[in-house]
Amino acid sequence: MKILLTCGDFKIGGVQKSLMEVIKLINENFNSEITILVNNNTGEWKTYVPENVIIHELPNHIKGPQFTRKSFYNDIKNLSSIREVINFIKISFVGFKNYKKKRLLYWEAIKYNNRSIIDEEYDLAISYNGGIDIWNQLVVDSIISKKKICWIHGRIENLLLNKQYENKYLNKFDEIVVVSENLKKNVYKHFDSLPKVKVIPNIINEQDIITKSRKSNIAVNYNITNFVSIGRIDTNKNYSLGVQSLKILANKGYKFIWYIVGEGNRKEELMELIHKENMEQYIVLTGNLENPYFLIREADVLLHFALSEGYGLVLAESIILNTIVLSVNYEGVNEVITNDNQGIIVSYNPNNIALNIEDIIKKPKSNLKDERINTFLSNKEAYHQIISLINKAIHS
User: Fold this and answer.
1) Are residue 191 and residue 256 in the same domain, yes or no?
2) Which Enzyme Commission numbers does its entry carry (predicted)?
3) 213-243 residue pLDDT tens
């Protein structure tokens, strides 16, 4: 049996982490040849790819064009034919500011010459980062497979390129999978005519998380309060709200360190804000950590300020490690935590956030975790759901 899965790259991220668990599950339960199709064959998670898995990288003329002023000459250099150059130049002058729309136009122009990106036929092809960039289009148009599944991890409004266009492609998949009930509602809000959408939570390897949390990889000062946030430094993670909130506590004289684990396209902007607010002594940007679990376990509170999430995997991981979670009230957060011993849900107001954090850190440090109960419910059912999904796909 041959199975293909797609992913943008192997950088540290929730989708990549989840993909590794799915590949591990397939290896353990099916006699299969697994291929991963990526945009860039780089990233920290690549070392976790099993040796028996084949990795294919998209050809430059498909992955390359980004349609920005800075990338213009590199984009042209990566194209493989005069026809592609002509299409690229035409689309470059279209008035769309959104490069994703230009990517769609470019794909429409070249797809007939890219009917088979890989010269193989698969039993199952999974657009595992479904909805991102043009992956759904690639899997539908250019991967030869008996069955095809779209797996969506993020809210549709954050992924959507063109509603009518995306709807056409989504309807061509045999199955559509989302990672939470809230995400299912979100999909139907935008595409109410889709066939049944299946909810399968991300696999959370509880024992692996606990084991890794015991491996020290960063110095922690236990004499002060330690906060941690995990996630890409981008607009959605909303770290500027955290800076505003913790500035209030700093002004009150509280001593703390806030560790932000991740990289992203808003890192310089965040660093400028930290400098502007004189918060350098309170905030540490660690960059990417392959193992963030030690820091999550040792932190007093995990802070989460995201504008939206497909699920909120890091919140569940924090609950496993018995770390207090304070999260803003993004849509769907109640699927992961509730306002009880699992965590605290707050509004997007800096004063409200600061007040709730202050209530937590006023307690004696030794009591912060003692009164907590690990109420995480194992999602072993996800294993059975994925096995059932694959069996159905290959035997129907």
Assistant:
1) no
2) 2.4.-.-
3) 999 889 899 999 999 999 999 999 999 999 9
